[in-house]
Amino acid sequence: MAFLIRSVTQTADGREIVRDTRMEKDVLGIGRAAENEISLPDLSVDPRHARIEMRDGRRVAVIANGTLGFEVDGRSTRNTVIDSAKGAELGFGGHRITVAHDGDDVTLTIKRVDAVSDAEEDRDEAAAFSLEGKLPGRRLTAWALVAAVLIGFLAIPVWTFMQGPEKTIYERQAQHSWSSGPLSAAHHSLENNCESCHTQAFVSVRDEACASCHKDVHNHAPPDRIAGARAKPTAWKSLLQTVARTFGKPGPGACVDCHTEHEGAGRMAETKQAFCTDCHATLRQRLADTKLPDAGDFGTAHPQFRPTYGQTRVAMATQIPSGLKFPHDLHLNTSGGVARMAQTLRGRYPFGEALDCKDCHKPSADGVRFRPVEMESSCGMCHSLAYDNVGGTVRTLRHGDVAQAIADLRASTHRASRPPALDGGRRRPGQYAQRQVYSAYFGPAAQRGSDYAVRALFSQSGACAECHTLTPAGGSWTVAPVVQPGRYLMHGWFDHRAHQTETCASCHKAGASGSAADLLLPGIETCRTCHGGEASKAEVPSGCAMCHSYHADDGAPWVPSRPVGRIREDAASNRGRERR
Amino acid sequence: MRDRDLDRRGRVREAAMHEGFLRHRNFRWLKIATALSLAAIAGYGFADVTPRPNGGSWYGYTLGTVAVLLILWLTLLGVRKRWMTRGRWSLKAWTSAHVYLGLSLIVTATLHTGFQLGWNVHTLAWALMMLVILSGIWGIVAYAALPKALSSNREELTQTQMLEGLRAIDRQLHEAAQPLAPSQAALVQKSLEQNVFAGGLFRRLSGRHRGCATAKALRGIRREGGQEKVQSLLERKSGMLARLRRHLQLKAMLEVWLYVHVPATFALIAALTAHIVSVFFFW
Questions:
Q1: Residues of A in contact with B277 (CB under 8 A)
Q2: Interface pTM, i.e. ipTM
Q3: Which of A327, A421, A486, B253 is the most exposed place for a label (fewest CB within 10 A)?
């Protein structure tokens, strides 16, 4: 009945050395200190950690001396009684003591199980010195990212497309990651609706997609004419076209050739001049029967304007049958009688020192052109049609209605005096003061009866003939129609409002015109003082689209509309450009 | 001794390598890459594209095709480096081309975008490519600068030797600490249990080790006036730890870029796939 202490140590090459010591004692000390019967060189063990007492042949008690306990079969305790026949394992720091019964002895097998230090622990050196385990593995990260990108940016958008046009806001958003850039302001509402233009997968955007909304867009010309008009592409362009065709892009002339999208919010990019000049610069070489002269760069290769007057095209410096007698030079003269009269009437009308264009020519509501000059409001400021005065109220003849004028005149000759203005007399500046002028004119004709008054009115020296050309026609007169076209250039667009910084006279030489038959339109040379071709150094570089519309109609050429509240201007390309 | 010799030879080879692949054939690939970039810039200036340069113009598609072929070829370095060969297409030549052509992608692919960047899959591909290139630049800088620091820090010790030294000093410390009182023994035990490889990426890269058990043990035992031998052993251990940690830090800096470069390359190829498919899908 004794303790058999069996200490097991390991050599460097892993061999076990077993050393047995028999102790005929009832109590054994366990601890770090050398005086213990079981001395454990273990810093986790107290110098006198515990003791083992023999209780009888089989049972031993293990009792901690201090506050530090020990482990029995993995459980911490400070004292325990062990039946050595059943066995147990005691744990002190990095050492294990196995309690067993062998013959009459209680055997205590002591073994160091923990390494002396962490550095002693077995580890894969290459892995320990690398970043392995510090970061997610490269392969794992790579495949996780690949999966995330392919699902998020490929599978989901494709799946969303397959769902058809009805989509939730999330599905639209998922698909939106494919958008290469914001749509222009005009198409902003389609931003999350890819299928409205990209109707089929792997098929480029077709004209039909555009036409599904833009139902009333005119064709520029019949397709066969356009095909015939198109210049033969250079070898390079032809190569590009072949490649584009190979990849299924729509041929030249498709909507998207000109109207490019996904170029950023704001205005849609404008069309380059070359888009027009590719055909029009040398059109006659290919379309022999065309009525259009060749037109290229505005600054260098654009034909003179061909204004339309009535139904026909006329030359620039030509005489037109305006139907009116109106010398501009006389009316704009700053020192003649007209100017004097304007000065006199300044209190009543917004005249300056002399008459000015604006006194008669009023802009249209949109400011693009001018309204026809009206006799009553413009000419009538000076050229009165007054013929009667009833109790201080002046009666005037109806302008533009010969029969009515005759009837009015006949009806009033029973009593009233008539202004000599109607029968050849002429008002003079200074006489046209408050109502006085009328009483001065009312008189001579009245005494001679209604027939005389009517004849006098329509005579060559009468009030009407002063401005109009009259032809007698069976007891009445026909007045030659006055033509005041609002627009002369039917295929080009000229916007007066865009030219407000200029004076009228800088383009229209009205001050030197003695006849209303003079066509006072400026020629292309006048325009070219400011405007040049798209790439020119002129003050206002001007592409074709500034004046001409591809989808020809009567309106202004199509210009990308200005977005509300979100403007990103390309200052250079819009220099001098007034948007509408 | 043999080990040390081998290590020195390795270092010499390494130095020749890093100098080699950057200067390979008198900067041949630098010249080729520069020419490619200049050509791309010149083309960008002269190409007649409407309405403005972008990835969807003929020039954009050309640059895009060049860029994607380059990217795929650059990725092949990962495959190529597993077969060592000599000559014109030696691994060194390949690496040199990889570096310089990779850098030229900054020009080619950015011009391909026409500077139209946004929150979409197309810009994702571009951004991932830039991430790959930037991490690659880090890698080149690391390879050029760090091996010198690494070897001067090691002073001809191998990693195994460093670890062996630590073990030896731990064993001595364990022996010397046996007579210590429990409180001091506990401090030494903490130092012995200390795992020099513990801690996350940040600790590795920063080289900061606050709360180091060995430093604590040294302070504690000095304060309590413990055994001189234990103190000097702890001091020696501290020195060894500092060297080992610097070594780990430098090695981490040498390695960490690959943890970005490689996964980002794969993500880039996935994003490129999505980019190209999406372009043709919504053609």
A1: 154, 158
A2: 0.86
A3: A486
A139 class by beta-carbon count within 10 Å (0-12 exposed, 13-18 middle, 19+ buried)? exposed
Neighbours of B16 (CB within 10 A): 11
Contact list in B for residue A41 (CB cut-off 8 A) is 174-175, 178
Residues of chain B positioned with their CB less than 8 A from the CB of A243 = 58
Cα A185 to the center of its chain, rounded Å: 4
| Residues B262, A145: C-beta atoms closer than 8 Å | no
Count how many pairs of residues, chain A against chain B, have C-beta atoms within 8 Å: 175
Distance of CA A519 to the CA centre of its chain: 42
Cross-chain Cβ contact B118/A269 below 8 Å: no
Write the residue in B160, B178, B258 that is nearest to A138 by C-beta. B258
Q: Is it true that domain A3-118 has CATH number 2.60.200.20?
A: yes
Angle in degrees, 0-180, between the axes of helices B182-193 and B159-176, rounded to the nearest 10? 170
Query: Domain boundaries in chain B?
Result: 2-152+257-281, 159-251
Phi, psi of A341 (to 5 degrees): -65, -40
The reply to whether residue A153 touches residue B274, judged by beta carbons under 8 angstroms, is yes
Residue B176: CB atoms within 10 A of its CB come to: 19
Query: What's the distance, CA A510 to chain centroid?
Result: 42
Inter-chain touch B269–A146, beta carbons under 8 Å: yes
Residue B196 sits at the chain A interface (C-beta within 8 Å) = yes
d(CA A372, CA A484): 6
Q: Residue A515: what residue type?
A: S
Q: Which residues of B touch A129 (CB under 8 A)?
A: 159, 197, 247-248, 251
Choose, out of A153, A259, A267, the residue to mutate when testing the contact with B (most B CBs < 10 Å): A153
Q: What is the pTM of this model?
A: 0.72
Q: What are the boundaries of each domain within chain A?
A: 3-118, 379-479
B129 CB near a chain A CB, below 8 Å? no
Instruction: Measure CB to CB from residue A272 to each of B51, B196, B248 and give the nearest one.
Output: B51
Q: Which residues in chain B (148-177) have CB-CB distances under 8 A to chain A?
A: 159-160, 163, 166-167, 170-171, 173-175, 177
Distances (CA, A) of B160 to A485, B141, B156, B167, B251: 101, 27, 11, 10, 15
Q: What is the CA radius of gyration of chain B?
A: 26
Comparing alpha-carbon positions, the chain A residue that sits nearest to B246 is A129
Residuewise pLDDT in 10s, chain A (580 residues): 789 999 998 887 878 899 999 888 889 999 999 899 999 988 889 999 999 999 887 899 999 998 889 999 989 999 999 998 899 999 998 899 999 988 888 999 999 888 888 888 878 888 888 888 888 888 999 999 999 999 999 999 999 888 887 888 888 888 889 998 899 888 998 888 888 899 999 999 998 999 899 888 777 888 888 888 888 888 998 999 899 999 988 878 888 888 888 888 887 777 788 888 888 999 999 998 988 899 999 999 999 999 998 888 888 888 888 889 999 999 999 998 889 989 988 888 889 899 999 999 999 998 899 999 998 889 888 888 887 777 778 788 888 888 888 888 888 765 544 444 454 444 444 444 433 333 333 445 555 677 777 888 888 888 888 889 888 888 788 998 898 888 899 888 899 998 999 999 999 999 999 999 999 999 999 999 999 998 899 999 988 888 888 887 777 776 654 433 333 344 333 333 333 3
Of A400, A397, A401, A395, the residue nearest A415 (C-alpha): A395
Measure the CA–CA gap between B227 and B236, rounded to whole angstroms: 14
Among all chains, which residue has been given the structure tokens 């894969």? A124
- Mutation pick from A40, A124, A145 vs chain B, by most beta carbons of B within 10 Å, is A145
Whether cis (ω within 30° of 0) applies to the bond prior to B51 is: yes
Answer yes or no: do A138 and B171 touch at CB < 8 A. Answer: no
What is the separation of C-alpha A302 from the centre of its chain, rounded to a whole number of angstroms? 31
